[in-house]
Structures are given as structure tokens and as C-alpha cells.
Amino acid sequence: MHYIKIAIASLLIMFSASLVMTSCKSSRSNVSDKTGVRYNDPYNGGLQINRKIKGSSGPGLIGIEGGTFVMGGSLNEDLGYSHDNLKRRVTVASFYIDETEVSNADWLEYLHWIAQNYPEDGKLYYDALPDSLVWRNPLSYNEPYVNFYLRHPSFQDYPVVGVTWDQANAYCLWRTDRVNEHILRESGALVDYKTLSEQQTREGQAFNTDIYLNGQIQGEGIDGKNMPKDNKIGAEKDAKRIVRMEDGILKQPYRLPTEAEWEYAALGLIGNTIEGNIENSKTYPWNGLGVRSGNRKNQGRMMANFKITSGNNMGVAGNLNDGGDITVSVKSYAPNDFGLYNMAGNVNEWVSDVYRQLSYEDFEDFNPFRGHVFVDNEYENAETRTLAKDKYGRPIKVPAKAARKQTWEELQAAKAGTPSTAAYDYDVRGFKDEELNELYGKTTLVNDKSRVYKGGSWNDRAYWLNPATRRFMQQDESNAMTGFRCAMTMVGNVYGPSSAKRGSATP
């Protein structure tokens, strides 16, 4: 009996201890590990930390688990003898990329928004229009595409073409703001669409993420009914505040993928990886050395939309092969092992990099990229930290002034107009490989505005379907064979060491 009492007492002690440990563990998530001070407490300063938010993609994106690969490794022959993508091992961080190319319907949404919000600004709308004249050819009857390709509903799911690199970047900026505005209106942090539609639209007051986060978009007629609670000391009862980046609600910017990201995503080697080893390499976004399907159901069918031979764009009537005379719907053909459509063929795709023939010589082995022009926000009032805006409500960017965080004294001197002793080279597009502008068009066609595009198109031979091939155009040029898709940086890493998603193609 005595032993039974001791055993029961021991069990009770262990049970009580486990409850205490569980309680400590559950409450600790809302407490600083370093000071023990509770987060989100309005009585101790109100520092708000959101422990429940997990990284997620924006609309239309697929998560790409990063890793190491041999950039240029899929290119077994260099038909042009350009030697501009020799093999080198790099690591690409995990990121998000569009499942499909940006379609005509997507671009029409962009144009529609501009027309609604800036009906009197003809230049803004005109500058956003794709160049439909890229279809014109003096020896080809393509004139119907000039008028119908962008706007006819039969082409609405086809990839937008005739867009320059500059236009693609402008679309990325616009998409970022529309996605974040939609999140805020749907969550109630901003007034809903119905209320907004009943208000008078004021030119220059369109939503911008950076301006909003700086506290310059708030007030009567703007704030929604479900704004976050303001926990700062001295705040009135039931006081509200704007959403902050720390809340984890807003999405990071859409952008063009880097060349390394695009090539990595196109190859989709994750499908050939077993226990950390790549069992088979790839020449195209699918397995095998050829461009025809080896699947019994679709055996012999082309895996992408490209120019099969001279004079053969689609195959023979009655049993068409790739079936695409020009472009086809952005969800045509089978996706690659990351779940991405048309990473080979259909249209070439812009990437963000500046072209250099010797890019393989001057590169970082982690997230390689060439094309930085470092900028800062311009302040309308430095004392109040009010950002300067252009007439469209976007922050005005100015060249970055320093390579590092300035000291307080340096910052004050800059405000007073005292010139810095050392000039900072904020434009590093030509880093370690400067191009002489005066030679452009004479001895070279490459300068700091030459941008890379990849992937091959409906009018290209199979060679260009290899993800390692690369070509370039000027960033203000376009053609009927080039479109784009957007990417997004992955904050944190949903494929990290503790994630159950490791090895999965989609988050």
C-alpha cells in the first residue's frame, strides 16, 4: 500500500510538471527569448510580433525549392559559337514564379485599370500598350494579328507579346500594388471596393505599397473597419493603425526572374532528384534528348510549341503535331516537374539580367545576377520622413548615395547639403565588364540596356528550347516572339530544415 501511494504521488508530480512545461512552452511563443518581456502587450511598449504568419505566395505563383545546379550545364553544343554560357555551379535560393506566361487577358486587366483610374492621361495608357505592329512582315500576311491578337477573346489566354523589358517591369510594379491593395480591401484594412466605387476618384491617389507602408495613405474615407489594433503606449482605447510589414499580411514585390532563377526553374531537376542526387540530367524541361513525347498515350507528340523545320510551324493537317501556328494558350502542353507551363517554346521570356557575353566569368555563385542600379527613396520632408511622390502616387527614386548605412553625422551632413568625400557608383550593370557607349552600334551591339531573354518561341528551332541558351535585345525593343512571366522573392524559406514541404514542387 505504501508503494502504491508513492507511485501515485510520483505520477501526480510528473503530471503537474508536464502541465507547467506545456504552459511555459505555449506562452513562451509570445515572449521575447532574450529579455522575457511579453510581446503585443499595450502596457510595456506594445511591440507587436506576429508568430502565426507563414510565408505564402501571391496569386498565380508556384513555389520553387531552391538548390544548387550547373548553370549552362544542359547546353551540350554551342551552334552560334558565342561561348556565353559556359558551365559553372551556382546556388539559387527558393523563390516563387508564375505558373504560366502573362496572357493577353492579364495585360488587358492592366490597361483597363489605367483607363479607369487615369482617363485623361493618354500618355500613360499609350506607353502601356504592347506594340501590335510587331506582327507586320513585308512578305507574310500577318495583318489580322495586328488588330485581333491582343483584344479578341479567342486570343485572351495566349501570351502577351510586343512588350518591352521596360513595360514588363512596369507591369510587375503595378501587379504588386494591385495584389496588396486587394488584400487590404478584402481584409477590411482599407475601405471595400463598393465604398471606393462610390467615392470620387482623385488622380494621383492610386494605392502604392511603399507609400501606404510609410503611413501616407490613411484617413477618413480610406481606412477600413477592420484595421489592426494599435498597442502603443498612450494610444486611445480601440485605436487602430495601418497594416505594417511586420504583420506579414502584404506580399513582397513581383519582379522579373533572374536568369539563374529562370534557367533553374525551367530545367525542373527536382523531378530527377533522389536523396540529394540528380539521377539524370536534362536537355529540355522534360526528360529525354528529343522533343517528342515518349508517353504511350501521346507518343510522338511534340512537347512544346516551336518551329519544327523550315516552313513547318505546326505539322500536317489531319494529325497536327505541336498544333501551334503562332502562339497557343499559356496552359498548353504538359508542365515541367515544378508545375510550370511552356518553359520551352510558345514565347521567349524576358529575364531581369543585363547581357554580357562573359557573364560566366564575373559572377557570384549564390543568386548570380547582373543588372543592379541601386536607388533610394526621395523624401519630400526628411524631418517627418514623408516620401516624395510622382503624379501617379508612386515614390520618386534617386541614386543611392552610399554602399553602407551612413553614420548619423554623415546623414545630417547630407541633409545640410555638404557633399560626400567619396562618390558612390550606384550603377553596377557594367561591374567588372564595362561597355563603352561610344562603341555601341559600331563594334558592339551590347550595352547596359541589353537584356537577356530565354526559352525559345513558336518561331524558333528546337535548339533554343534548351534552358541554357540565351539571347538579348535592348530593353526598349519588342517582337512577336517574346513575352514574360513574373517572379517573387520567397521571404523566409517554406522549404527550410523543419518544413514538411521539403521535396514538394508546390507549397
From TrEMBL:
<dbReference type="InterPro" id="IPR042095">
    <property type="entry name" value="SUMF_sf"/>
</dbReference>
<keyword id="KW-0449">Lipoprotein</keyword>
<feature type="domain" description="Sulfatase-modifying factor enzyme-like">
    <location>
        <begin position="59"/>
        <end position="362"/>
    </location>
</feature>
<keyword id="KW-0732">Signal</keyword>
<dbReference type="Pfam" id="PF03781">
    <property type="entry name" value="FGE-sulfatase"/>
</dbReference>
<protein>
    <submittedName>
        <fullName>Gliding motility lipoprotein GldJ</fullName>
    </submittedName>
</protein>
<dbReference type="InterPro" id="IPR051043">
    <property type="entry name" value="Sulfatase_Mod_Factor_Kinase"/>
</dbReference>
<feature type="signal peptide">
    <location>
        <begin position="1"/>
        <end position="22"/>
    </location>
</feature>
<dbReference type="InterPro" id="IPR005532">
    <property type="entry name" value="SUMF_dom"/>
</dbReference>
<dbReference type="InterPro" id="IPR016187">
    <property type="entry name" value="CTDL_fold"/>
</dbReference>
